[in-house]
Amino acid sequence: MSKVNQEETRPVDEVFATIPGVDRSAVQELLKTELASLNKKIIVLDDDPTGVQTVHGVSVYTDWSVESISQGFAEEQAMFFILTNSRGFTAAETARAHQEIADNALTVSKQQDKEFLLISRGDSTLRGHYPLETETLKQTVEAGSSVAFDGEVIVPFFKEGGRFTIDDIHYVQYGEGLVPAGETEFAKDRTFGYSNSHLGKWAEEKSEGRFLADNATYITLASLRALDFESITKQLMDVRDFNKVIVNAVDYVDIEIFAVALVRAMKAGKQFMFRSAAALTKVIGGIPDRGLLTKDEMVSGPAENGGLIIVGSHVKKTTEQLEELKKCDFIEFIEFDVHLVLEPEKFEQETARVQETAERSIQSGKTVAVYTRRERMDLGEGKKEEELMLSVKISDAVTSIVQNLQTRPRYIIAKGGITSSDIGTKGLEVKKATVAGQIKPGIPVWYTGEESKFPGLSYVIFPGNVGAVTTLKETAELLEG
Q1: 148 with 271: CB under 8 angstroms?
Q2: pLDDT for res 7
Q3: What are the start-end ranges of the H helices in 82-131?
Q4: Is 246 helix (H, G, I), strand (E, B) or coil?
Q5: What DSSP string runs through 408-459?
Q6: Residue 4's pLDDT is what?
Q7: What percent of the residues of the chain are helix, what percent strand, and what percent coil, each to the nearest 5?
Q8: Would you say 418 and 83 are in contact if contact means Cβ atoms under 8 Å apart?
Q9: Contact 121/43 with Cβ under 8 angstroms?
């Protein structure tokens, strides 16, 4: 168990200086050999579209029908993503969706006689329907097959976003400091809040004491950097009763070392469920590194039309990035007063105003940024479900801007997980997209499918909590060229 004070902010340089280096190329060769004989289809369930922020050349399906899952199984690539958008669901909707996904995956697995792994990709700052999602998957798979899960692997490390796990405590980097996740604004999320930064205690808190921190298995940085594959594999072999496996990591090499031991344990018969951020998916999927996308790889719309930027996320980082974006003189800014949702007639008029202004500007060659009013709507204590329902109405209105667009923009940037999911699935009507890569670290780009509203459009999915203050501005400037 960790002795580090939960309240303590730690200097990045000082912490990283104490961690020994390793030969990453040797580790990668070892992992490549292990993955070559894994022979399981990897299905990543993404609770918003930002989970593809480390991969490229993989498919994302926006439904979980047997047909779509069959297509995913038939692909040569070892891994595919299913976008659930469950971060924007109620608990009941989340449970129902995950039961359907697990049932359909079992059906396809039996049809194609191929085993699969389920990775529940969640937020690197620990928000989302946890443990509901992984427990629903576990129960459904176990009820419909001979599989019995030994444990759950928890890996929220995400280097590109400055999320590191050290001494079993999960940190978020702010400037030159590492702040325990439980001390950040993310921990105060009105729907998915938590208090513990120690991941064993976090899992205990979220499971309401059903899984104890004392019963968790901790994979330390010391054992990882010592390349002690044997002892890590043994730790995994000893996991029982769906207890939690907490993986410490400050770099991709830590996940690669862990993955070698993990694959060995799985080949020896161990069964694990996974709750992870985006880093594990890249490693376990065997996705190689690639450079950032260039403008030529992304801008495909008519040169005379403007681009479209939609900003929905309300986290502090997004608001700061929006203020910086406002320095761009090539963008027309439209504030969408979403608080009018409480007055349906006025809200309808406001939506129409924003829609018409955006259409006219894009058609005239001007790039438009539509942003929701920055103050959060607060209905008071005990109104979480009501607030969620209103947020769905707001999201539907924002999505309708793209849904009703007659002019194809040169590109679209959507800021925020739920915003980008709804625009992708409802606004652009994407059924299957290909992840092109990243425009900036941790910021993925889809090429929309042939069935979509604007086929082959570059769709930039910009997470609410990723990037420096200037990153949104830099992204828009790159696309404008």
Answers
A1: yes
A2: 55
A3: 91-112
A4: strand
A5: PPS-EEEESHHHHHHIIIIIS--SEEEEEEEEETTEEEEEPPTTSSSTT-EE
A6: 41
A7: 45, 20, 35
A8: no
A9: no
CB atoms closer than 10 angstroms to residue 387 = 16
pTM: 0.90
**Cα–Cα distance measured from residue 345 to residue 341, given in angstroms and rounded to the nearest whole number:** 9
Closest CA to 135 of 17, 61, 242: 242
- 470 φ, ψ to 5°? -90, -5
Give the pLDDT score at 300. 65
52 neighbors 13 (Cβ within 8 angstroms)? no
446/457 Cα distance (integer angstroms): 8
pLDDT, averaged per 10 consecutive residues of the chain (481 residues), comes to 56 93 96 95 94 94 97 97 91 97 98 97 96 98 98 97 96 95 93 96 98 98 98 98 98 98 98 97 95 88 87 87 96 95 94 97 97 79 74 89 96 90 94 96 95 96 90 96 80
pLDDT value of position 2: 38
Cβ 399 vs Cβ 423: under 8 Å: yes
Closest CA to 81 of 66, 95, 62: 62
Q: Which two tokens stand for residue 459?
A: 């769709």
Concatenating the DSSP letter of every residue in 185-208 gives: GGGG-TTT-----BHHHHHHHHTT
**In 3D, which of 255, 246, 279 has the Cα closest to residue 119?**
279
Strands 163-166 and 151-155: unpaired
Q: What b/e readout covers 363-375, taking b as 16+ CB neighbours within 10 angstroms?
A: beeebbbbbbeee
**DSSP classification of residue 294:** P
Q: Give the separation between CA 15 and CA 339, rounded to whole angstroms.
A: 44
Q: Which of 225, 214, 272, 215 shows the shortest CA–CA distance to 248? A: 225
